[in-house]
Amino acid sequence: MNLSSADVSAITLTLQLAAVTTLLLMLIATPLAWWLTHTQTRWRATVTALVSLPLVLPPTVLGFYLLVLLGPRGMIGQWMQALGMDTLPFTFGGLVVGSVIFSLPFAVQPITNAFAAIGARPLEVAATLRASLWDRFWSVAVPLARPGFITAAVLAFAHTVGEFGVVLMLGGNIPGETRVLSVAIYDHVEAIEYGQAHLLSAGLVVFSFVVLLMLGRHSGQWQRTTT
Amino acid sequence: MNTDHLNTIDAHFRTTLGSFELDAELSLPLRGVTALFGPSGSGKTTLLRLIAGLDRAPGSLIVNGEVWQDDRRFIPTHRRALGYVFQEASLFPHLSVRGNLEYGWKRVPAAERRIGFNDVVEWLGLETLLMHRPQQLSGGQRQRVAIGRALLASPRLLLMDEPLSALDSASRADILPYLEQLHRQLELPIIYVSHALDEVARLADTLLLIEAGKIVYQGPLVDGLTRLDLPLAHRDTASTVIDTAVVSHDPAFQLTHVARQGIAFELPGLHGTPGEPLRVRVAARDVSLTLSPPNQTSILNLLPARILEIADDAPGQVLVRLALEDCVLLSRITRKSAHALSLQPGMAVVAQVKSVAVA
User: Fold this and answer.
1) Residues of A in Cβ contact (< 8 Å) with B78
2) Is residue B308 left, alpha or beta, with left meaning phi > 0 and alpha meaning psi from -120 to 50?
3) Are B103 and B95 in contact (CB under 8 A)?
4) pLDDT digits (tens, 9 = 90+) for B129-164
5) Can you tell me the distance from the alpha carbon of A110 to that of A136, in angstroms, rounded to the nearest whole number?
6) Which strand (E) or helix (H) includes residue B164?
7) Domains assigned to chain B
């Protein structure tokens, strides 16, 4: 059985969404993780809990509130319209916003753990060797936290590929625009096209398994070289 | 630039950390090795970290006329021209030995570098290790790299926090000579934290005694070791050090003759080469006193001395502090002997030094 062009477009869209989401997540999660590692304010616990919310909330709850907030009557939606922008629901941009929030804990937690594992000492050593804070971040913290960055990127990518609820609530099912893989599978099942559903589903199972396997191997290798 | 503070370090920190209270005021010459000595938990490392700017506490700090901290200013660590050697080598695990050594060196403008990369590598014997990862090195090698890394950042003040205490005795013996050469070869003042008195006796010129967060003595090493109102003289291992020079060797009896203006010692073993400086250490329990030189004795070192002060020591014992030319000796004798000889400050006596050791 061959993939229909609609399915190919769903796969392409899914990969695009995962790539953009991962990129944005690295840019957002890195400073957030750094702040969470080094701050001493009492807001730390609050922010950690907020970042972790998507882990426990049903995606539909998240999707629902995003829809309300970003929609034409929502606070952010109205503000965007006032600036002459289109509202985000039912667009690719809307999916990106939803995915970033939904996968945020998957990116923030590994990076935070990696920064925390470095400890204060290497950064102190770098400071006594004339490195400014910015310099210490790039020359010491980032290289030493590399395994955390890799884990974060892989998890964020894979998790975005697998998301369904947020997409459905926020993106609808517009072919080529917001119709991603998980939604396509849902449609096939609804239409009793089990062959197509199998093809896409099995593909996702294999993809996810390979990702997790490589992640495990990678972190194992890293542990062996550092101990 | 405040010219009052040139070539000195003046600091005053006052802070409370939990139940620990630090109130340390110090003013030291910026030359040679200053040992910051005290029992564990006395605040040695805390004080060193405050000087480095790694921790922050209210106070002031002026190093060689440069304000590093006062009520308004706090110069961050990376803009202080210091080097810091931690207890553990703390090499960067993601960099090779070369990468570690170059880390600080690259961050100092070429015009401000005070030491050459290859000189440091050669001096510390690191040529063959440059491509290695820190994980492949022994403890002693790692600490040598850490010392080299700190030196290559061209510090004007080197801070060392018990750099030998995490090492086994073989690695320690491997590193000590480098530390001795360090301040002889480089014009680099060092503050050296230690709780090992033998390291202090071997390396230091100036002593900073700290107890429960307070500086109880700051001044020349010998006074700190021998003043009877200070705790070190009353330790079991109380001793003095004397900086001498090697005069000659006696191969037949395996003795080394050392001397310094008016004083001469013979010590067992062959040490150094003639003319070379040698610091010797004399323990208080190895010095006994007589009023006139004995005719026949097994003791080689008989030295005319004058009593400076006498103080009670452990039960039944007294400590006698003696002037020997411009040096100081300690003698621990029984109270009975002191009474029998009617020892008084100012008296001339003969010190019989049973054993002199290389510090």
Assistant:
1) 126-133, 135-136
2) alpha
3) yes
4) 999 999 999 999 999 999 999 999 999 999 999 999
5) 20
6) none
7) 3-234 (3.40.50.300), 239-358 (2.40.50.100)
* Inter-residue contact A164 to A41 (CB < 8 Å): no
CA distances from residue B95 to A118, A127, B190 in whole angstroms, order as listed? 14, 16, 27
Q: Is B94 on the interface with A (CB under 8 A)?
A: yes
Do A56 and A137 touch, CB atoms closer than 8 A? no
* B170/B42 Cα distance (integer angstroms): 28
**B211 closest CA partner among B37, B94, B25, B18:** B37
Token pair listed for B164: 């030998």
Task: Extract the tokens encoding B18.
Answer: 């939990």
Contact (Cβ atoms closer than 8 angstroms) between residue B77 and residue B54: yes
Q: Around Cβ A214, how many Cβ atoms within 10 Å?
A: 12
- B309 by Cβ neighbours in 10 Å (0-12 / 13-18 / 19+) ranks as middle
Residues from chain A that touch B53, judged by Cβ atoms under 8 A, are 127
Helix (H, G, I), strand (E, B) or coil at B157: strand
| Complex ipTM over 0.85 | yes
Residues for chain A: how many in total?
A: 227
Residue A226 has pLDDT above 50, yes or no: no
Helix-helix angle A5-38:A181-190, to 10 degrees: 130
Element (H, E) at B42: none
Instruction: Identify the CATH class of A5-37+52-226.
Output: mainly alpha
pLDDT digits (tens, 9 = 90+) for A129-182: 999 999 999 999 999 999 999 999 999 999 999 888 888 888 878 888 888 999
Convert A121-148 to b/e letters by CB count within 10 Å (16 or more is b).
ebbbbbbbbbbeeeebbebbbbebbebb
For residue B40, CA distances in Å to A110, B37, B53, B194, B233 come to: 37, 9, 21, 9, 19
Between the alpha carbon of residue B335 and those of residues B30, B235, B291, B311, B312, the distances in Å are 41, 17, 16, 10, 8
Strand pairing report for B33-37 and B59-63: unpaired
Amino acid letter at B78? H
Contact (Cβ atoms closer than 8 angstroms) between residue A162 and residue A182: yes
Nearest CA in chain A to B151: A129
Contacts of A146 in chain B (CB under 8 A): 94
How many CB contacts within 8 angstroms connect chain A with chain B?
Answer: 64
SS3 A177: coil
* Residues β-bridged to residue B160: B85, B192
